[in-house]
Amino acid sequence: MDVAPVPLWAVCVLRVALATVYFQEEFLDGERWRNRWVQSTNDSQFGHFRLSSGKFYGHKEKDKGLQTTQNGRFYAISARFKPFSNKGKTLVIQYTVKHEQKMDCGGGYIKIFPADVDQKNLNGKSQYYIMFGPDICGFDIKKVHVILHFKNQYHSNKKSIRCKVDGFTHLYALVLRPDLTYEVKIDGQSIESGDIEYDWNLTSLKKMEKFSAESKDGDQAQDDKSQDWEKHFLDASANKPSDWNSKLDGDWQAPMLQKPPYQGGLKPEGIDKDVWLHQKLKNTNYLTEYDLSEFENIGAIGLELWQVRSGTIFDNFLITDDEAYADNFGKATWGETKGPEREMDAIQAKEEVKKAREEDEEELLMGKFGGQENSFQRFHRRDEF
Known about the structure:
The chain is α+β, with helices and mostly antiparallel strands.
């Protein structure tokens, strides 16, 4: 019996239905955003936000977002949502940021907080789980921060990820996967990816903790053996010699061979991965430490940053467990307005050039007539004398 193929639209609908959206904010209901976002009162000098689509935009209503309004200020504002854990799940954090003022020095990043964060007292010392987004200051700093909280410390991605520096709206997305891989996207394009354990320099931290725990147990001999297994593996193909006498020669053990590096999921030729990892997993809690990107009590998102010149607009916030949903949401928001935004900016630029040219011509014309009038007056004055 022939089975009719499932329509693509049905697959898309099913995919969206399976996605879990923890937080989504587009600021489409006017000033009601103030009921969802809490301005910190920790410092009376904190800058204030307003809802604005800026001087140029792709859609006047859809492009409205939180805009910084005061120069030389710290900003602190946040929104709460139902707490969740991303353990064993993909975590996608996405939003748009527009440095309409052509940022010279200031942050455009967001922070993800534990559910128990004190929103009214939010400040630079408030603990966060994740800090993600662009940071610009002068010629040296033009980077995308990706900072994770692990073992009571903040750890930055060791790779240099360059951010966008123009005045247009850009879509930033961070993907943390349960297999300890990650991806950073700008405008829907992957610009960096890799392994969380290695790209955050956490391997040395975990190794140090592992050896420390084993030392506390007093099993130094086992620790040495574990380190030995870091460099060697058992020759699984070796067999006990036929003339081996256990009473005279002792228990037979397969010889140890030099171990090539095992990285990136690639299996070294001739080596069984299970054999290579066996002793390591037997004597350590390696697998239980796979919490480099797992956060148990995620419950708030916020902007906590400094700006020299204000004018940045933050919009289209999304936190979900589904990469496809995030991609589609980005296309339906930023994807629909990015073109018209640039068109409006180009039209305004042409109008400004035209206006400047007209003003220059008017000044030149006035200067010319003014010069003739002055010469005429000087001529008659000379005749009078």
